[in-house]
Amino acid sequence: MKLFDNYYNHRLLAKHKVEYKKFPTINGRLRIALFAAYGRIKIGENTTINSSVEANPVGGNQTILLIKGDNALIQIGDRCGISNVIICAREQIIIGNDVALGAGCRIFDTDFHSIDFDERKADINIPSKPVEIKDKAFIGSNALIMKGVTIGKGAVIGAHAVVTKNVGDYEIWGGNPAKLLKKLKP
Question: What is the CATH number of the domain that holds 111?
Fold first, then answer.
């Protein structure tokens, strides 16, 4: 099975023109969905992506990278660990180096639709803002990072947190909505 997964993942990244210096370690089958033209995905060196229940049974079924906007970008840094996450970019999601994305977490730079019925029906005026997760951050299992948020360097986001505000460097946040719990020493 692993041989077929490896073949599948190589073909998938080639089909979607994913940019990488060295092919990432992918355990299971990655999913990529492009719903818009010209979206880009970049993956740094020595990044490991778990994308199956067997690879990490703690949360989620597989890793899914979604491009929802023309010219959207998902950029993943070097030495990241990603486990059964969903990353959806309508504009831009930048993930720094040495970032850990816990099992089943979600990162969205869009609300996917307007809250106004007529706009929603016409699929217009969709709120979106870029997301950045800086180096050495850790996002806990099943956390949700929403549009417009910056997660600071070395920050920790607790499991099941819903983050709607910027998180400073070396801070621990948790809860729904997430709030500052503690500051860490750099």
Answer: 2.160.10.10
